[in-house]
Amino acid sequence: MVKISIEHFHLTYSDGAESLRDITIDIPARAISVFLGPAGGGKSSLLRALNRLNDLADVRSVSGQIRLFGDNGQTIDILDPQTDVVALRRLVSMVFARPVTLPLSIRGNLTYGLEVAGMRQNNLLGEAVERSLQQAALWEEVKDRLDEPAAALSGGQQQRLCLARSLAMQPEVILLDEPTSGLDPISTSKVEASLQEIKNNYTIVLVPHSVQQAARVADHAAFFLQGELIEAAPGPNLFINPTDKRTQDYVEGRFG
Amino acid sequence: MKIFISQLFDKERLITRLIASAGYSAILFVLLIFYFLISEGLPALGEVSLHSLLGTRWYPIEEYYGLLPLISGSLMVTLGATAIAMPIGIGTAVFIAEVAPRWAREILKPLVEVLGGLPSVVLGLIGFLILSPALRVNLNLATGLTAFTGSLLLAAISIPTIISVAEDALDSVPRSYRDAALALGATEWQTIWRVTLPAARSGVLTAGMLGVGRAIGETMTVMMVTGNAPVLANSLRMLFMPARTMTATIAAEMGEVARGSVHYHVLFLIGIGLFMISLVVNVTASAVVFRQRKRSERILS
Amino acid sequence: MNTSQQRNLIQKAGFGMLSVVALLTVLPIVLVVGYIFYQGLPAISFEFLTGLPREGMRAGGILPAIVGTIYLTIGTAIFSVPLGVAAAIYLSEYAQDNLLTRLIRLAIINLAGIPSVVYGLFGLGLFVLFLNFGTSLLAGSLTLSIMTLPVIISTAEEALRAVPQSFRVVSISLGATRWQTIRRIVLPESLPGIITGVILGLERAAGETAPILFTVAAFFLPRLPDSPFDASMALPYHLFVISTQVPGMPLKLQYGTALVLLCFVLGMNLLATTIRSRARAKRQW
Ligand SMILES: Nc1ncnc2c1ncn2[C@@H]1O[C@H](COP(=O)(O)OP(=O)(O)OP(=O)(O)O)[C@@H](O)[C@H]1O
Ligand SMILES: [Mg+2]
């Protein structure tokens, strides 16, 4: 089943360079899709288009169509200026490369998304806190210090908190942009394990920080090079059996 | 998550409007100030001929409205203040930014801030009670209430402005310039003069301009210590005699004039002059941008 | 003597000269403040602080001036703080880099530079005469508010801009609106900086004389104001009056009044600096 369909998408930043050209790809529901490729390929830009975070960047123009098929049967035209971006961002949540915790307590970080959405019931908020921390494999480590500042956590814990923070809102899609690039191998494997666990309920789009990570987690993979989508294929195929020479060079480590 | 949020949006729109109008209000206030100065001051031009306004006698009781003594008084006091404040202010800024050890900086900066916060009447009091008698005795003057006394105090008032702007300018000179000069064998002293100060010159000049602006607009201090005699300053000697500035004239006389009288209009006309001077000084100064304010942090990626 | 020794000597002399210049700046400040304390302290008594002036201000207390200045400061805060902080929020969080924004910035720079006596003229023209508030606390507070506005706007804007952009992006990515982001994250984080700026702005308002000359100040009014439409005495103006306008004034009273004004202003300054350094030490980013 397709969760997000991207058709003929173009994006140009205000410096005039076309950073994404004619991207057409379907993102399957309840699976991990990875966008990989060398630096500057446009992976982050595409990810940010999916929840309209590009609205905050110096984007000159976008064209094409991106549709999200909601669990309730509704279709959202993501690029439509009329689309309610706040509602969209509650459905499509983002975890960034650098773990940015808000200057609040651990609990405050987790309930933030729900509170701004208007949820006030303490019991529901409490449930969301525990559930999301469990899913991000952080519950045991922080359950006794939920009211401490989030900034006191280690880098790896902070990044899992950021993942939990997205999960707490029960979005339908989670975007992760090199979420483990600053983490040690142990924290990295914890994050990857969480992703494997939650992928049955969420659509996950991941920009991996290495080809190895991509190969480990990808159900579907897409290779981006200088603003173009070179090749997309189900998980292992792209790594074992790439059809394009450039993809092959990249996954075999000849550049990047 | 299904939450009904259109309600939230209306509140958002209202708040955005309110905040935006607060932003625009700054423009409104400048226009209002300008409008009231014009509407109360411009009639003076119809009531007093330009010839009389450019006269050398200010004696409103007998309808002499010559502005030259006031303008020259303001100029003289301000130039005197600038001549004193520029070297001291910039010297201190260089000391704070480039030379002083940490502990000295930590004492100097708050003290300069205190000077900037001293009410002008308090400085005026000290000038009136202590500085001016001392000047009279030491310089053997007929009175200690002179333009020079005003210049000294105005220098004190404009020094904090000069220091803080000049220090910012010096701080914004990239570290690498200095390192390059030092690596080439220049002493720190030579680096300051040949590299850092020249690189910061536009900011340092701005500091001076803003200091002048601060001095020319100061009212209470000069009114208390310059003796308030509206005589034309036509020689350097006049620096050591009583003088009268534009600001002091407004402050001293506005309380006693009838609304709508010629005298009232002329005082507002002087206000227009002061407004224009400050406009020119500050707009010119602000054109010299030495601190990149642009937020260049890219979105997390 | 070789050239390198010579250069070192020049450097030493130069640095010595600069430190003398710096001393020249700060020594008088210390002396003046110390002298006012020395001369003014003997005047401070319970009666001086809480009594009404008597015998043509040559005796008694300065309570009406103290109360007037407190009222004026509060009045100024009521108008200038909400407006100034909102304007700062606009500039830091909403404004795009366009002509209108540049005009606003120009206006603020201009407001900051207008001489205080010109504010006095404006207050007289608009509030006292045109709006018919008379010489009153209200007219004076409004005049001082507009004068204080640029200080509050620029310091508050700086405090807001110091909040890392990443907090805003994260908040927005979690589905917060712009205003929710400001209210829940940006404002709390920048509050100490904003408060510091507000106090520094009010400090300036409290010490100013020229803007209240024609808008509030009463030469001699030995009672407390009881409505915003009352004229009032105020510390800076009172100090001006007793130091230059009334012959035969005891020096002690002049220095005593100067000391009270100084304490008021320096107290605010100290408060602002304390808040600022406390917040800096506590900050996590
Ligand atoms: N906010 C922005 N403003 C202007 N140009 C941008 C911005 N963000 C990205 N770009 C440009 O768009 C192109 C694609 O960048 P993007 O960050 O999407 O690539 P990426 O594939 O995520 O690279 P990386 O692996 O380095 O994260 C680059 O040329 C980049 O310079
Ligand atoms: Mg990227």
Describe what this molecule looks like in 3D.
The complex is a heterotrimer of chains A (256), B (301) and C (285). By secondary structure, chain A is of the alpha/beta class. Chain A is built from 10 helices and 10 strands. In chain A, the strands form 2 sheets. A 6-stranded mixed sheet of chain A has the order 6-7-8-3-9-10, with helices on both faces. In chain A, helix 4 crosses helix 6. The longest helix of chain A has 14 residues. Chain A is globular, with a radius of gyration of 18 Å. The two termini of chain A are 32 Å apart. In chain B, 72% of the residues lie in helices and 1% in strands. In chain B, a hairpin with a 4-residue loop joins strand 1 and strand 2. The two termini of chain B are 27 Å apart. The relative contact order of chain B is 0.14. Chain C is an all-alpha fold and 285 residues long. Chain C has a single domain, classed as MetI-like fold (Orthogonal Bundle). Chain C is built from 11 helices and 2 strands. In chain C, strand 1 and strand 2 form a beta hairpin. Classes of the chains: A alpha/beta (256), B mainly alpha (301), C mainly alpha (285). At the B-C interface, helix 1, helix 4, helix 5, helix 6 and helix 7 of B face helix 1, helix 3, helix 4, helix 5 and helix 6 of C. Magnesium ion binds next to helix 1 of chain A. Adenosine-5'-triphosphate sits at the interface of chains A and B.
What's the total helix number of chain A?
Answer: 10
Distance between the termini of chain A: 32 Å
Structural class of chain C: mainly alpha
> Oligomer, anyone?
heterotrimer
Cα shape of chain A: globular
Helix content of chain A: 25-40%
Please tell me the CATH architecture of chain C by its name.
Answer: Orthogonal Bundle
Ligands, ions, cofactors: adenosine-5'-triphosphate, magnesium ion
Q: Which parts of chain A are unreliable, with pLDDT below 50 for 5 consecutive residues or more?
A: none
CATH topology of chain C: MetI-like fold
Number of domains of chain C: 1
Please write the string of helix (H) and strand (E) elements of chain C: HHEEHHHHHHHHH
User: Number of DSSP helices of chain C?
Assistant: 11
Biggest sheet details of chain C: 2 strands, antiparallel
CATH class of chain C: Mainly Alpha
Tell me roughly what share of residues is in helical segments of chain C.
over 70%
How much strand content do the residues of chain A show? Answer: 25-35%
- Write out the strand line-up for the largest beta sheet of chain C, numbering strands in chain order: 1-2
